[in-house]
Amino acid sequence: MHDHAETHDAAGCCGDADGAISRAERICRERDLQFTRLRRDVLVAVAGQTKPLGAYDIAERLSAPGRRVAAVSVYRALDFLTENGLVHRIASRNAFVSCGHSHTDGAGLVFLICRNCGTIDETTSPEIEHQLGRTLAKAGFKPTSRILEVEGECGACLGRSAEA
Ligand SMILES: [Zn+2]
Ligand SMILES: [Zn+2]
Fold first, then answer.
1. In angstroms, what is the span from residue 161 Cα to ligand 1's centroid?
2. Which of 57, 77, 85, 113 could in theory staple to 42 by disulfide, Cβ–Cβ 3.0 to 4.6 A?
3. In this structure, which residues have their CB less than 5 angstroms from ion ligand 1?
4. CA nearest neighbour of 94 among 59, 61, 53
5. Where are the domains of the chain?
6. Residue 10 DSSP label
């Protein structure tokens, strides 16, 4: 099992589909947006995982005999969910994870990606955000996202290899 205590706040954790759904319902109500069945299904599929899912994997999971879900529809639903901060795109994996946090839109995020078990942990770092903001300002660069992806080995995997 993965220990999230250090990087996740008490409000939520990845793999918590119910929490993600109620958050999505609240956000859609507040912003007067449609939380369609497909958007809900896609969010449930992503939120049930601690590993990122690609659009084709999601389409595969949602498809049943006689009911094929096209990847293009899944992409559209993912765009919607990403825009509203309910899922995040992991660029280096071209895959998506649900957001279990209640950080603000556009907050600087750090994703810790384990190369060994594939688990992704999401965390925020005010220090990095502050520093990054200064670096960007100095470079005269306007970011559209401030998401950092760090690859390595997670604490659980490190613990396991230390035991072996
Ligand atoms: Zn998030
Ligand atoms: Zn790991």
1. 29
2. 77
3. 99, 101
4. 53
5. 17-98, 109-163
6. T
